[in-house]
Write a structure and sequence with these properties.
With 174 residues, the chain is an alpha/beta fold. The chain is built from seven helices and five strands; from the N terminus they run H-H-E-H-H-E-H-E-H-E-E-H. It has a single domain, classed as Rossmann fold (3-Layer(aba) Sandwich). 36% of the residues lie in helices and 15% in strands. Strand 3, helix 6 and strand 4 form a beta-alpha-beta unit. The two termini are 29 Å apart. Bound molecules: 1,3,4-trihydroxy-5-OXO-cyclohexanecarboxylic acid. The site of 1,3,4-trihydroxy-5-OXO-cyclohexanecarboxylic acid has 10 residues, from loops.
């Protein structure tokens, strides 16, 4: 998507399906997809662990998967904990019904993200490209997991679309 590629170098990536017929999307489930620190470096960052796809490409895949389910995603990335907390805090008021969250290393350090998720009324799925449980010891602990309805990890970019399927099944009652 042109917009995603334009914004791919900035701190925030935002994607909604281009050309989706707006009237048919009225009332569609809206999902906020958040990625945290260093995930803007996907494609260049340790590709043997995280794969060769850029985050913009992954966002395109998530948007396409959402469109098949007549859902809409807004995909964002920030290297800043506070930005993620602000987005989570506003998500319900902004009209989202659920969230996917890959907090990056904040998974293992951030009580503030845990609090933000607990303070949100929205179901959230924790997402990881790699399988943190099969890596260094510090990655085995997720501080956000107790505030999430589920977790998908270890499937590369597909972790996001698998998590979206699970979340939409829950939200759309499939
Ligand atoms: C990650 C796993 C984290 O441990 C790591 O700090 C990341 C990426 C993943 O998607 O596999 O930045 O969240």
């Amino acid at each position: 998507m042109a917009e995603a590629k334009r914004k791919a170098r900035g701190g925030t990536l935002s994607v909604v399906p281009d050309g989706a017929p707006k009237p048919r999307l009225r009332g569609a489930v809206r999902v906020l997809v958040l990625s945290g620190p260093n995930l803007d470096r996907l494609g260049k960052r340790e590709p043997e662990i995280y794969g060769k796809q850029t985050l913009a490409e992954i966002h395109d895949q998530i948007a396409a998967a959402a469109a098949l389910r007549k859902a809409v995603v807004d995909c964002r990335q920030s290297n800043h904990e506070g930005a993620l907390i602000d987005w989570i805090g506003m998500a319900a008021e902004d009209g989202f019904s659920g969230m996917l969250l890959n907090p990056g290393a904040l998974t293992h350090t951030s009580y503030a993200l845990y609090d933000a998720l607990k303070g949100s009324s929205l179901p959230t799925v924790e997402v990881h490209l790699s399988n943190p449980d099969a890596r260094e010891a510090f990655r085995k602990n997720s501080l956000v997991a107790p505030a999430c309805v589920g977790r998908v990890a270890g499937f590369g970019a597909a972790s996001y679309t698998l998590a979206l399927t699970g979340l939409l099944d829950r939200l759309q009652g499939s």
